[in-house]
Write a structure and sequence with these properties.
Elements lengths: L11 H25 L3 H24 L4 H46 L5 H25 L7 H12 L4 H21 L1 E3 L14 E3 H4 L2 H23 L3
Antiparallel strand pairs: 1-2
Helix pairs in contact: 1-2, 1-3, 2-3, 3-4, 3-8, 5-6, 6-8
């Protein structure tokens, strides 16, 4: 990584600082590549781009075009951007885990309040979807990856292939079901906590699901929905 030192003399501590900054950026780039770039050729190209970037900065420092401080600032700024990217990924995985828990709770509530009539068609599938989301996001968070596939997603893949599609269509269907479950939860009628009647409940005894959401729960739901939509757009625009 070091150019010909005869171009510009650097103190030993400056050389060490540059080497350390380059190594930290390279390691962070490898972490982001593993987490976000499933395609090996794209990941390798990303790592090459980072290597070329750092080589250019170091070359500028040794040639005198940049001071050591300017070179370190440029390298550290790029590393900070990658760290923020990693932290955002981790936050979204945490949101996915929380959203999966909300799906399980919602599915259980549907089974309970419908006396089982809506359990098989809506409640149980929603709980299975939520459990799968917890599994995938939890494994990704612990392993630092982004490609964990839970058993329910694999069922979607199998169904998609059985009807002549690919895993891509299965992933799209999985995301659509996630969004449909969120929309159903927000729009369904649920009893107000204080409502109690000996006989039939009337319309004023009910609230829409979104009206009972806490601020935190609503925020988690919205962030999760936006992330699901973004993932759907990525799948939709991906090559077959």
């Amino acid at each position: 990584m070091r150019p010909d030192k005869s171009q510009h003399s650097l103190a030993d501590d400056e050389v060490r600082a540059l080497d350390q900054a380059v190594n930290l950026l390279t390691n962070q780039a490898c972490t982001v590549g593993i987490q976000r770039l499933k395609n090996l050729s794209v990941r390798l190209q990303f790592n090459r781009d980072i290597t070329e970037y750092t080589r250019g900065i170091v070359q500028d420092v040794y040639s005198g075009k940049k001071s050591t401080a300017q070179g370190l600032e440029a390298i550290n700024k790029q590393r900070s951007a990658l760290i923020k990217h990693t932290l955002l990924d981790q936050t979204l995985l945490g949101v996915g885990i929380a959203a999966g828990g909300m799906q399980i709770a919602m599915g259980g509530g549907i089974c309970y309040f419908s006396a089982g009539t809506l359990c098989l068609g809506i409640g149980a599938p929603l709980m299975l979807q939520g459990g799968n989301n917890i599994y995938e996001n939890g494994r990704n968070l612990l392993s630092g990856r982004s490609d964990t596939q839970g058993p329910i997603r694999k069922v979607y893949h199998s169904v998609a292939k059985a009807v002549g599609g690919t895993e891509r269509e299965g992933n799209i269907a999985y995301g659509v079901v996630d969004l449909a479950g969120s929309a159903y939860g927000a729009g369904r009628l649920v009893l107000k906590p204080e409502s109690w009647r000996l006989f039939r409940h009337i319309r004023s005894d009910y609230l829409y699901g979104y009206q009972r959401n806490t601020v935190g729960g609503a925020a988690i739901g919205k962030v999760s929905d936006v992330n699901t939509l973004q993932t759907l757009f990525e799948y939709w625009g991906a090559d077959e």
